[in-house]
Amino acid sequence: MKSLVQGDPVRHRRDGWTGTVAETPSRHTNHAWVNRNSSSDPYPELVLLEDLEAAE
């Protein structure tokens, strides 16, 4: 994925989990902060863009 917008639904290519983009940090241009749908953790995690794909 080349660019993501806050709120975009995504799926992790290798692990299969889904989530929502929380933020695309400017200093980590090849990463995005993602809130996993399956996690109760209130904080998003930093994920490589190449590991994400659009989810429906």
UniProtKB/TrEMBL annotation:
Annotated spans, Disordered: 1-23
Q: Which domain of life is it from?
A: Bacteria
Q: Know the name of this protein?
A: DUF1918 domain-containing protein
Higher taxonomy: Bacteria, Bacillati, Actinomycetota, Actinomycetes, Kitasatosporales
